[in-house]
Amino acid sequence: MAELSEALLSVLPAIRVPKAGDRVHKEECAFSFDTPESDGGLYICMNTFLGFGKQYVEKYYGKTGHRVYLHLKRTRKLKEEDSSSSAGDPPRKKPTRLAIGIEGGFDIPEEKFEYDEDVKIVIFPEHLEIPRDGLEGLPDMVQDRIASAIEAILTADSASRKQEVQAWDGEVRRVSKHAFSLNQLQNSVRIPPCGWKCNKCDMRENLWLNMTDGSILCGRRYFDGSGGNNHAVEHYRETGYPLAVKLGTITPDGADVYSYDEDDMVLDPSLAEHLAHFGIDMLKMQKTDKTMTELEIDMNQRIGEWELIQESGVQLKPLYGPGYTGIRNLGNSCYLNSVVQVLFSIPDFQRKYVDKLEKIFQSAPTDPTQDFSTQVAKLGHGLLSGEYSKPASGDGEQQPDQNQKGMQDGIAPRMFKSLIGKGHPEFSTNRQQDAQEFFLHFINMVERNCRSSENPNEVFRFLVEEKLKCLATEKVKYTQRVDYIMQLPVPMDAALNKDELVEYEERKRQAEEEKQPLPELVRAKVPFSSCLEAYGAPEQVDDFWSTALQAKSVALKTTRFASFPDYLVIQIKKFTFGLDWVPKKLDVSIEMPEELDISTLQGTGLQAGEEEMPDIAPPLVTPDEPKAPMLDESVIIQLVEMGFPMDACRKAVYYTGNSGAEAAMNWIMSHMDDPDFANPLVLSGSSGPGSTIICPDPPSEDSVATIVSMGFSRDQAMKALRATSNSLERAVDWIFSHIDDLDAEAAMDISEGRSAAESISESVPVGPKVRDGPGKYQLFAFISHMGTSTMCGHYVCHIKKDGRWVIYNDQKVCASEKPPKDLGYIYFYQRIPS
């Protein structure tokens, strides 16, 4: 005992009591997915509060010298049944709210287990163990300090728990900006308590009361043809009256209120007063129609798409072992799970992070939980090692149901999710996200962290050649840009089953009129070849500034590949905007080929007989309007009506060169997360009356490093960023369009007195590091989406491993029987070796 007391006294100065703001990692190892339930338990450093599994705690001690750890070991056991309750579990209620873990939402499964917890202090390197209750014999002050530290660690919220949202609510709504200032016409309109009908058609369901003039009109037509005839939204466009309430949802507790101006469901604190204007007494109203949330839940539980993509109608064989590890869903994180499963099936990512695991861990900073390379390597090892690919812990008595077969304990990448989402307005939340956007976000993070080392992103990177041909002069302009995804359009007019679709729409319309069950869904079948043709077809660009004419003209834009990547990522553009700019998902089947040849899309560069346009920058202002650039106001208004800020819309039209609404919309979607997204358009160097000459901020080091990692010099990166107001995306495009100028400047460096060393250090070959080869590919993975929008629903992925298709559905990993290759969202093709 004297030895233990002496050891404790020697480490006493290093023992800290966690304070507010300290992250206590007591649920997960910083270098592995070991937890207190693992065989070796978890060691929590009592100085830094970092957690380590048995395999890594000694290495951490050797690196830092921290000697004292709190060891947690939990043993799981079944909860004893409550004998006082003989009625059994109540039946599960059908969800009525698009939420998790709150009243009316989807239930969080009740924990079936309880835990025995063993707590002790371990001192290194002697491996001295002192039980939590073994502090007798120490001075009272010492006992109190150690006991306080232990208690504080045990009761503190774990770092992951602080970042998780246990109850997710998809119905959180904002108070409308019109709620307290709504103008209501004095037109003596009175609304009866029932028997409503659309003022413009015969619809008696999905009816909305405009709260300005009392018009009753039907709602929007949904992407599947159900819903209304768009009369309510058309009325808003004609009148500008913003707020409408859904009739049939009004109760004493509230109702569904929609703001067309804000393009969202909103709250109206003055609802009772607004309804009373039309003679409606909220306290006497009863619910007779489905709320928008109930409709969304019904959509999310739609049978056809969900069953096909998850293969839930087939008994699948569970798979376990290296490369077959499931990932727990951390609350709408299936988009992340699907993307990383595919990425770590690619050898380049395995070599970068998993094969170099020890080297990465050895060079990790003091807090490895905040190091990108460490957490990515940890994730990759967790997926590929097979250590965590084991059947889910059962209760030992009940047989698992069909849906639970193949379920694993898997890994829970909380540290990775927290780190990669840090500071991001969307990926830092527990909301559902677009898998394509996350893929690009992850690629960007890899770029930032591979500035001067092996970069696995090179497998995806390719050059796009864009050719613009001025139809007035026949002169051409060639540019190149970097991309990682081929976005493939879906030409619905090329569907092979048009007659079936027309017949289905008619039968569905009749069923809706007669209040009968809807007919079996008929999905549009679009050939892949038609999608490929649409991608390569020339696109007309109106209001194109032709440097050959020094005036606006009409041009044709053709897109080709300047290089073919090792892995071709294809996104099917299923999510689009309808004619009324309402987002919709195309319900389409595209039979994707197992083998793909896109050699015909190879760029050719300037051809014999073609004459290039002069390389002159278009003027920022026009002669007849010297104070501001000439922008297409009709496009700006179109974008503003969709709910985007006016200044952002002006910038979108300006930076896309007045090339139309679609190009401007793509710019907005790509820049919505920019901190200056809604700031006014300010042009540096303007000198007209009333203009502002600005000194732009210096380019950020992250942007400079990202461009340098593509193979450009630092000077080139700085010049490109300054020329494009520090826009990373535009800077890369700028470099490609000024390659000849940059080469000439590099050649003049020595003649201008720069040292040879300076010149050599920056004489990097111009252009990004891209791999090129034949344009023949084989399908090896695809990610599928279920649901009405990228922001809701569920993602799974299928990956071809060892000659067979495997489905990864969060914690469930099974051999695939019928991979739905025609319903995918993102496809990954691997180059066929020549």
UniProtKB/TrEMBL annotation:
PROSITE patterns: UBA (PS50030), USP_1 (PS00972), USP_2 (PS00973), USP_3 (PS50235), ZF_UBP (PS50271)
Region of interest (Disordered), ranges: 387-408
UBP-type domain segment(s): 174-282
Span of domain UBA: 630-671, 698-738
Listed Pfam families: UBA, UCH, zf-UBP, zf-UBP_var
Enzyme type, top EC level: hydrolase
Coiled-coil features, chain-numbered ranges: none
Intrachain S-S bonds: 194-792
Keywords: Disulfide bond, Hydrolase, Metal-binding, Protease, Repeat, Thiol protease, Ubl conjugation pathway, Zinc, Zinc-finger
Active site: 334, 794
Domain USP: from-to ranges: 325-832
Entry GO CC: cytoplasm; presynapse
Alphabetical list of InterPro entries matching this protein: Papain-like_cys_pep_sf, Peptidase_C19_UCH, Ub_carboxyl-term_hydrolase, UBA, UBA-like_sf, Ubiquitinyl_hydrolase, UBP13_Znf-UBP_var, UBP5_UBA1
Entry's family note: Belongs to the peptidase C19 family.
Stated name of the protein: Ubiquitin carboxyl-terminal hydrolase
Organism: Gopherus evgoodei
Gene: USP5
